[in-house]
Amino acid sequence: FKGFDPNVLCVATLLFEGDREKVLQHEKQVYDIATKFGGLAAGEDNGQRGYMLTFVIAYLRVGYLPSPTETIVN
């Protein structure tokens, strides 16, 4: 777990939208905050896998493919 305690680990999948300049600005802000608290960016590929996992977990739980509840911050 790369030095992280799985009993207190928190994982977030983030999706940045907007023009390239805003996306880069927001990514930098979020990653700077994460770094300040010992976090790290796992990369786009891991984010896509994590996002797909939300659908798989929901499917396994209820037996059909619902849309998982998502939080949007604007």
Automatic annotation (TrEMBL):
Q: Which reaction does it catalyse?
A: a long chain fatty alcohol + a 1-acylglycerone 3-phosphate = a 1-O-alkylglycerone 3-phosphate + a long-chain fatty acid + H(+)
- Would you tell me the Gene Ontology cellular component terms? peroxisome
Q: How does it assemble?
A: Homodimer.
Q: Which GO terms describe its molecular function?
A: alkylglycerone-phosphate synthase activity
Q: Where in the cell is it found?
A: Peroxisome
The organism that produces this protein has a lineage beginning with:
Eukaryota, Metazoa, Chordata, Craniata, Vertebrata
Which pathway?
A: Glycerolipid metabolism; ether lipid biosynthesis
**Chief localization:** other
Keyword Transcription set for record: no
Give a short account of what the protein does. Catalyzes the exchange of an acyl for a long-chain alkyl group and the formation of the ether bond in the biosynthesis of ether phospholipids.
* Residues engaged in binding substrate: 61
The enzyme's E.C. designation? 2.5.1.26
Q: Which family does it belong to?
A: Belongs to the FAD-binding oxidoreductase/transferase type 4 family.
Alphabetic keyword roster: FAD, Flavoprotein, Lipid biosynthesis, Lipid metabolism, Peroxisome, Transferase
Q: Which cofactor does it need?
A: FAD
Q: Which organism is it from?
A: Bambusicola thoracicus (Chinese bamboo-partridge)
GO biological process: one example: ether lipid biosynthetic process
The name under which this protein is listed is: Alkylglycerone-phosphate synthase
